[in-house]
Write a structure and sequence with these properties.
Shape: globular
Number of strands: 0
Largest sheet: none
Distance between the termini: 55 Å
């Protein structure tokens, strides 16, 4: 029983580290955005939960002109900071998106 708990704790730490690396890459890419730095502070946990929930709800109404479907993945990204079971899928989605972005840019440069 102890080995299973150790394995799940190690997996949770691995997922958290992966998500932190992806957040760091995003933060360096978006370094001119003023709110990118405060969003990772531990003091703003309640704010992140509210903003993430609002983004997800707004993403569900993406068919409206002001809101968009882009709000849904952004809300999940914000919530993944505080919700442990979202870290793995969001981290994997960020890795896939980064790989596809790199592949698209390589193909664009080659053409």
């Amino acid at each position: 029983m102890l080995k299973v708990q150790d394995a799940s704790a190690a997996t949770a730490r691995k997922d958290a580290r992966r998500l932190q690396r992806q957040h760091l890459k995003l933060r360096t890419a978006l370094r001119r955005v003023p709110c990118a730095g405060w969003a990772r502070l531990p003091v703003t946990r309640t704010g992140r939960l509210v903003v993430g929930g609002a983004l997800i709800v707004g993403g569900l109404f993406g068919f409206l002109p002001v809101l968009g479907y882009w709000m849904l993945p952004l809300g999940l990204l914000v919530l993944a900071q505080d919700v442990p079971w979202l870290r793995r899928p969001v981290g994997c989605a960020l890795l896939v998106a980064e790989r596809r972005w790199r592949r698209w840019r390589r193909r664009r440069r080659a053409a």
